[in-house]
Amino acid sequence: MTKQEADDMSIPISHIDDVLDMVDVLVEGSEGLDEEIGFTLNEDMILLTFPFSAVVPAALEARNKLLLGTDSEAAENVVTYLTAVLTDLLHTQRDPLALCLLLQAYDKLEPPCPVPCCHQLSRFNRYYSLWIPEQAREAWLLQAQGSPSPPALPSASSFTALLQAAYESQALRDKHIQAQLQASMPHLPMQQVLRAAKQVLLYLRSTVENFGQLGRSVGPPLLQLFLDLLRRLVVHCEQLDAQNQQRCEAARAEADLFLDMESVASLELANDQTLEEVLVAVLRHPTLEGWFLALEQQALPPHSLSPVLVKLLAAHFSAGLLQLLAASAPILRNIGQLGLLARYLEAITQSVLKELQSRREGPATSPPKTPLQLEALQELHPYMEGAQLREVTLALLSLPETHLVTQQPTKCPGKERHLNALGKTLVQLLTCSPQDQLQSGGLLWSSESVRGLGALLPALAVDELDTVLLHTLQREPVLVPAVGADLLDYCLARRTQAALSIAALLLQESCTHLLWFEQWCLQAGPGLGLQGDLDDFLPLIHVYLQCRMRSHFTRPAGVSSAVIPVLRKTLWRQLQNRLLSTDSPPAPGPYQEILAQLVPFARAKDLSVLMDRLPSLLHTPSSHKRWIVADSISAALEGSAEELCAWRRTLLESCVKWLIVSFNGGQKDDDNTQDQEKQMLLRLNALLHALNEVDPGDWQKFVKTGLKFRYQDRTFLKTLLTAIQLLYGPESSVRTKLIQLPVVHTMLMQHSLFLPTLLKSDGEESPDSQVKEALVDLMLTVVEMCPSVCESSHFAVLLGAYGATLSVLDQKILLLLRAYERNKLSLINFRVLLWGPAAVEHHKTCRSLGRSLWQQPSVGDILCLLDRDRMMQTILHFPQNRRLLPSEDTQELIFKDKSRVDLDGLYDPCFLLQLFSELTRPEFVVDCRKFLDSNALGLTVTALSSYDPQMRAVAYHVLAAYYSHLEGARFHEQSQLLYLLDVVRNGIRTQDMRLTFTLALFIAKAALQILKPEEHMYLKVSNFLLSHEYLNMDKVPGFYQFFYSSDLEQKSEQEWVFGLLRQGIRDKQCYELCARRGIFHIILSFFYSPLCDEAAQNWILEILQNAAQVARSAYEIIRDYSLLTWILHILESKFLETPLLSNVISLLHTLWVTNLGDKAVEWESQHPCQPGSREPTKRLALHLVNEFLYVLVVLMKHLRPTLAPIQLTNFFGTLESVLRYRATVIQAFKDMNRFTVNETVLSTKDVLVLLHKWSLIERDLKLQEDLRTAIEKGQARELMKMLKDKNKPVVPARAKGPRGRKRRLGEAEEMADPELMASTLEICKGLLRSILTYWGPVIPVPDPTQEPVDSASPESNAPGPVYAAASVAVSWVLRSVAEHLLSRAEAAGLVGWLKSHILPHPVVVADLLKDGAMRSSIFKLYSRLCGAEGLAGPAQEVACLFNLVMLQLVAAQGQAGSPFHPAMEALCLSSLSEKDEATRASAAFLVSLYIKDIWLGAQRPDTLLAHIRMVCEAADDAPSSEEEAIVVLCKDVASAASDA
Hints:
Layout: H1 3-9, H2 16-29, H3 33-37, H4 43-49, H5 55-68, H6 72-91, H7 97-106, H8 118-128, H9 159-168, H10 175-184, H11 190-209, H12 211-254, H13 261-268, H14 274-283, H15 286-291, H16 294-297, H17 307-335, H18 342-361, H19 372-380, H20 386-397, H21 421-432, H22 435-439, H23 443-460, H24 463-475, H25 487-494, H26 497-509, H27 511-524, H28 534-547, H29 557-579, H30 591-598, H31 604-613, H32 626-636, H33 641-665, H34 671-691, H35 696-709, H36 714-727, H37 741-749, H38 754-758, H39 769-785, H40 794-801, H41 808-822, H42 827-830, H43 837-849, H44 859-863, H45 868-876, H46 909-919, H47 928-933, H48 936-942, H49 949-967, H50 974-987, H51 997-1009, H52 1016-1026, H53 1039-1043, H54 1050-1064, H55 1068-1076, H56 1079-1086, H57 1094-1108, H58 1111-1121, H59 1123-1131, H60 1138-1156, H61 1159-1166, H62 1182-1195, H63 1205-1231, H64 1244-1258, H65 1261-1274, H66 1277-1284, H67 1314-1332, H68 1361-1376, H69 1384-1398, H70 1402-1410, H71 1412-1425, H72 1428-1432, H73 1436-1455, H74 1461-1473, H75 1477-1495, H76 1502-1517, H77 1525-1539
Helix pairs in contact: 5-6, 6-8, 9-10, 9-11, 11-12, 11-14, 12-13, 12-14, 12-17, 17-19, 18-19, 18-20, 20-21, 20-23, 23-24, 24-26, 25-26, 26-27, 26-28, 27-29, 28-30, 29-30, 30-32, 33-34, 33-35, 34-36, 36-39, 37-39, 39-41, 40-41, 40-43, 45-48, 46-49, 48-51, 51-54, 54-57, 57-60, 58-60, 59-62, 60-63, ...
């Protein structure tokens, strides 16, 4: 090996990345070579350039040498083989002339003697000469004497041989030959289908070229034959492919058992591409592509035919090819190759458009025959692209209606018109086309189609078109403004189900149509001309009554109030008869809801009839809907207290009877019945609160029936509880007349479902815990209101249901047990201290064996009930705020912890400590080792950290009693445990002294360590205890000894002490204890030590996170230890492992949330006040907020998809909260006239990085592509490298640094639950939107020394990096909110961001408006925020501001020249400054009508003009002394528009 070779092989490893980068540069630099050459070598170019291989002339040369030789037998074999191969090669040629001339040239040979294969050569020469022009043909030297007759057709041959012989002999017109061809095709194997298809294509091409010679009688039948053969070949190939797939599936199913050669061959069929190759060869053929609809497109290929023959050829060719395309299209869709139809579908589109253009310009005549292009459109439209469908559909919609109907329409009015071919095509396109293709065209196309369809409907009156319009509006309600108001007349006159559904949708979505409907009602008068159509109109009237008061500011009040009497006169009598009818089943339709809405306007006589006859019909469950009317009568009687009280008594009686009947019905499992009963129980509850009385007989039946049939119904039990508290209270006047509480208690306790409900059963499904809670609440209420019901025999059941945990159910059972004890029934006297299933089993044993064999359980038996793991969890998460006995002034008796710990998994120390106090009495024999091993001692010691003095006193009492038992015990670890308790006792200086949780946990862990002498920490803990006479309560025991140990097991000791700190820091006292001893300094420094492995780093972050959960500690740890700077140093690493990154995010989130506390809430609650009246609010320092923001921005680059959902939420939530709070502080400084600098919080680079990380997390490919384009425009090297690295694995290829290490076993990240991840992404998406609204594009000020750049036109130059980033950001934001409901705060922030940061940049606005999807997203968002609810509700200010934004966007589209635009701008500005809410709402509404009209592509604001006209007409018809705001504004706009 030379020195140079050695140097080449010794490239440093660190340079490998550089070499790979160079390779990437070379590969990337090679892109675009095709553009430099000028063309690409596709398959068509190759076939034209190289029609056959260079092997062909070489083979012919070798053949001729053999023919000139002496070996005649070898020559004959070679000639036979070459003839077959060259025949197949000839059939594959698109243009066979070059090959045929080559064959003719090589056939010019003079062998010395006649060769035996002369007949084969002669026949082949005669065959290929068919494609050589007459003038180029040459006589063959070996031609036999005479003219040989054509060969006879073989009787039984293959499809290709039979086709060749028939073509050569010109016998294809023979019906017998055609039948033979069709019969032989099913026997054609898959490998020969492609050659057969190319052979047919060759003959088809020759037929087209020779069509003039064939004439009218021969040419068309041959064309039809060849195209039909192609169609049959395609279908046959598809059938063979399906059979192959079935064999493959069967072989794959058997491959799990065994695999033979036949199975291998079957599996190989799965990769067979013959079907696709056949379709490509057929559909990409130039003859088919060139002649399809060529005449209709007026783009004929080169030809020499007469006009008559051209028309004949084009018509027959296109008709036959259409059948082929119809057969191929489904196959192409199945294999995903619809692109092969692109040329044909484009031809259909262009020819149809030309046909429609000529129809539009000519008279309305119906041709006798459907044009071929329309037939093709009807046949192939399901496979067309969305743009093509939309273009054709709009062209059809733009035709006058006379072009869509026949010229002999029916004269009967109201009946459907007869559609011609164009009309039927339009109906077919609108009803049968894939809706996703039509929707993908954007809102502008949809609005144009809806507008055109709405204009055609009154003239055509076709049910299918009605359904199309209905489905379109249901899918996109925002398109309702594109529907003319006069279409409502058509719907009301047509009165079909689809037409009335359209009308109902229009009333829901459009205030203009609502006003039109009101005017129609007033013009129609009483009766509305309904006659027998009442049932069809009821849903429409129901919708109107629901919507009439929602938008009262959009029309004069007199119009709406005048409609009600018309509806009442028309409907009241019929609806009342239906309501009071006793027919079963009740009549369908929303008549109950309509009658309920008319009740407030009813006459006194009509209302009296209802009140008299309705209650008798409310008793049965089938009358459930009648209660809607009853409730509306209650609302109507609010002004008369006496009548209302009498009516409520009647309803209460009916309600109780209804429930009794429903309970007896036995349909408990029916969801509909459950919902109805729930509503009735809520109604009963409200009536009882209003009346505070009930009929005693009805009450007794209700209680008995309910407990009998609905014992396990939570709603019933809660209703019963509320009723008992109300009716049996001291203020109740009927409590003595009702069924007595002891009887109710007996019904509860003696019920057959009492034990199955309250106790756990292995064999049966346990009822819902909420049912148990409701039952316990009911029992507790009865016990508190009637203490005499308490009996000691109840303890067995209550203890059996008790789990001794902190769950809500167990806490309520404990309260019930305490209620029994307050009534002088003690558990101690009961002498059975078991609980749960053990108590049930003990009670069963006692009852079965009798009192003579009854035995009290031992202390060991009771301790065995304790689960060691649950006891340890209770120690680690001890509820320090839990009180032993609830305070008398405390209303909340149920303990709730603010931590995220599941209380159901923790034992209740209130019960266990009292239990331990009983078990350690002197007369009991205590198994002291078992007491320790079950963690009972650890729990008792941990209770010394409780904030409740009574809890600590009980714990000290238990320890003292246990100590006395321990002194007399005999087990191996007795002396060590005694010494431990002595050390603890010596360290306690005051009575009931509270220990910090860290110390209490150390004692508990040390006690458990005594039972593990095999572990290393046993010796270390024992040595530590033996070296101390007492436990210093101001130190963390053993920290320095264990942390700085020089032992070989030093890692174990550090792990033990880290575990103590991770689990032991719970409150401020724990933090101060560690801070005083310098522990935080030590672990923060140790984090960067080479001795600190990844696990220890994660433990340190967990310790800091626990300390950060305490408010003061979170602030001090940042102030005293510069924790944010310390975190920033971690983030400077090139790569962080996912667990470490997760802990960093959790730490930052906890620090921010704890430091923020309720400061943000305080500021927001005081913000609306005036500055002078607001008291100074404590806020976080601005520099601290900026530090948090800086760290979070640096953290962005480490985000990755592998983070857990909670960490993603924490990061984005923290960043959004920091930005929001910073904006609040900056605004406060501005209000106080303080000077602030650096208001910009996020740079353009930060936004791009954040969006890039989000695109990876959400896997948003469109956002990734947009970011790539924006970053490449900016040419930012760091961001471009970030894009290059996005597909690299998250884990680095090699670990760098002294602590590089591999992933440990079991460290693989688990996949999150898909539903949880989806919900997390939605939450984070909203947070990211809010984050982006705090950023605005800042354009750098140009250098004055540079030459000025002409920027008059925004489109003159490509957008800069900042503009590109802004376009990406705003596009993503608007795309994400298109289908997402925004809160009021989110909407205000988004609209304010658009106005302040996006609209001032014309380049960004222009780029935004070029995208149809973005325009659709903006309009959908605008329609949601600026509907009738948004204009009148608390979000009115947002709607008015959004109007201003949309007007500027409309002006950016070039619509500012409209005469209405200046008036709308003035009206919008006045709405922002107007004080009167009604005037603001009316002004904003009129502006919204204008915006919706113009945005949806209308040339004039027709909806706005129609609404103004109707309002002015209504005001003229009913003049009033004071004009309403909407009337004044409409007149002003009308006059301003007329002046313009």
